[in-house]
Automatic annotation (TrEMBL):
NCBIfam families: ilvE_II, PRK13357.1. Transmembrane segments: none annotated. The lineage of its organism: Bacteria, Bacillati, Actinomycetota, Actinomycetes, Micrococcales. Pathway: Amino-acid biosynthesis; L-isoleucine biosynthesis; L-isoleucine from 2-oxobutanoate: step 4/4; Amino-acid biosynthesis; L-leucine biosynthesis; L-leucine from 3-methyl-2-oxobutanoate: step 4/4; Amino-acid biosynthesis; L-valine biosynthesis; L-valine from pyruvate: step 4/4. It comes from Microbacterium gilvum. This is branched-chain-amino-acid transaminase.
Amino acid sequence: MTDTTALDFAVTRNLAAASPAQRAQLLEDPGFGTVFTDHMVDICWSEKGGWHRPRVQPYGPISLSPAAAVLHYAQEIFEGLKAYRHADGGIYSFRPEQNALRLQRSARRLAMPELPVEYFLQSLRELIAVDGAWVPEGEGQTLYLRPFMFAKEAFLGVRPAHKYAYYLIASPAGSYFTGGVKPVSIWLSENYARAAKGGTGAAKTGGNYAASLLPQSEAYEQGCDQVVFLDADGNIEELGGMNIVFVKKDGTLVTPASETILDGITRNSLLELAEARGHAVERRAVSLREWREGVASGDIAEVFACGTAAVVTPIGALKGAGFDDAQPIGELGLSLRQELTDIQYGRREDTRGWLTRLDA
């Protein structure tokens, strides 16, 4: 199926939807990933029918065969993006077409069908059309959007499935930082790998995150907030769920480049803003030695992590077996964070066409 004209969504309203008072209470302090809106999107794909049966339906359990391919062969991908409430009441998303394209790249790597960009964007609008009231207005609050797709064909056999389901759910999210942005400590994982060359590191698939859970637990045991991985050549890769950026004393921003790293939309946007300010940007391999010696010599003036949830998080310490290196805290990362979030929330003019209105 190659026709990407608009889908005709069937809408079934949730008869047990939260009342305005209940919703307001939940939005006072939604936390992250524990409160969900009243509805979800569901689109089917089959080898014969292509993308079909688009629906907005009540949020609830998914019926799945015990033999569903995803449960045995892990054909599963997902994305994460946010909806922002602007001062004029409008609801916007930030570069959602980039999430759609990344979902396609992930699908390609996992031998899954690629959801057209137009269908991805329409799914966001269809959900906002019924659940727009769930987009919070509080400082730093957003509606987190989680599109995901998995193999649902019931069979036991190692091959790409012939049936898939695309879903979109949404969860109101509070401000990532309470009481201000705080630097985090990072544990260097040298015994575990998140991904390998030729593997699925550049795809946003659950298996990559499952592989990070044990080393993340190790980081907690070492008193650290996050874990950083090395690639097969011993170069810095990324954190469990965030990209990393080094700021040199001459203002150059350096970020690791590898086929095992997820192509971060937040990272790319921050680097584009930095380039517009006149900063040089380098995407290349960064060794652990370069990192540690650069901090020791003062050549590296700042290190920060970045991703959808936190946008920018300063790194205050790098710990590993036998060392504990304090990291320099700079101002550039947080300055770029402010500029980016001002664009996302409509406080600064969007001159790059990064915002897409979802409620119009």
